[in-house]
Write a structure and sequence with these properties.
This protein has 41 residues and is mainly α.
Length: 41
């Protein structure tokens, strides 16, 4: 699943401003798993 798909999946669950933050956190978590451990963000 792409980062965009993860973002929109979480974003579309419910309405509300907090949903944007949750979508960003979900995409960030997925992205962090892709990075090589020695990579600086």
């Amino acid at each position: 699943m792409s980062l965009t798909e993860i973002f929109y999946e979480v974003l579309n669950k419910e309405d509300g401003e907090s949903r944007i933050i949750e979508a960003m956190e979900a995409a960030n978590k997925a992205f962090s798993q892709i990075l090589v451990p020695d990579t600086e963000e």
